[in-house]
Write a structure and sequence with these properties.
The complex is a heterodimer of chains A (114) and B (116). With 114 residues, chain A is mostly beta strands. Chain A contains no helices and 12 strands. In chain B, strand 4 and strand 5 form a beta hairpin. Classes of the chains: A mainly beta (114), B mainly beta (116).
């Protein structure tokens, strides 16, 4: 069965520090992978996606993620965190033939210290 | 381009009642998916509609239903509400890529349902 694991429920980083959020997935075929961000009281916004090709993908707001098939991982990174990045981050996996059906991880809440 | 619009944003119901939530997708998007978000279970897929047909369905009881209209707007209905149905219900629309739905979702802000 498909599954997504985000090992870190909550992470706190200092403003200006680098960030890495972990995501591991379980899926039988080549997955479509996504990172979404949710601010309090808001819906989810797509940060970046991986379908195929280059395993390092760039997203919005200075985020990037690297697909590592051998480790079944799709970790999200940002070189320098801003206070406005404080939010909850969700990793998700889908399949091309499943359309809008995504399996989401439990989320990682990011706090940013001034 | 307007985003995904969900109405109502907030509503309070009592056990046993039913509720209907509405979603207007981004113009040109024909796929609409619904998700339930709760603190305990996280984000769970309810169902997806494409061209007025249910294309995928999650593991929810039959009390949860939906439909899609010819203009791609969608509604979901929950009958005989239970306390556990209190959640944020998120609608998302998805653009086709070469005729294939990619799973790239654009979410609305959600309808927060409280069941008392």
């Amino acid at each position: 069965a498909q599954s997504v694991t985000q090992p870190d429920i909550h992470i706190t980083v200092s403003e200006g520090a680098s960030l890495e959020l972990r995501c591991n997935y379980s899926y039988g075929a080549t997955p479509y992978l996504f990172w979404y961000v949710q601010s309090p009281g808001q819906g989810l916004q797509l940060l970046l996606k991986y379908f195929s090709g280059d395993t390092l993908v760039q997203g919005i707001k200075g985020f990037e993620a690297e697909f590592k098939r051998s480790q079944s991982s799709f970790n999200l990174r940002k070189p320098s965190v801003h206070w406005s990045d404080a939010a909850e981050y969700f990793c998700a996996v889908g399949a091309g033939n499943q359309g809008g059906k995504l399996i989401f991880g439990q989320g990682t809440e990011l706090s940013v210290k001034p | 381009k307007a985003g995904v619009t969900q109405t109502p944003r907030y509503l309070i119901k009592t056990r046993g009642q039913q509720v209907t939530l509405s979603c207007s997708p981004i113009s040109g998007h024909r796929s609409v998916s619904w998700y339930q978000q709760t603190p305990g279970q996280g984000l769970q897929f309810l169902f997806e509609y494409f061209s007025e047909t249910q294309r995928n369905k999650g593991n929810f009881p039959g009390r949860f239903s939906g439909r899609q209209f010819s203009n791609s707007r969608s509604e979901m209905n929950v009958s005989t509400l239970e306390l556990g149905d209190s959640a944020l219900y998120l609608c998302a629309s998805s653009p086709p890529l070469g005729g294939v739905n990619t799973g790239e979702l654009f979410f609305g802000e959600g309808s927060r349902l409280t069941v008392l």
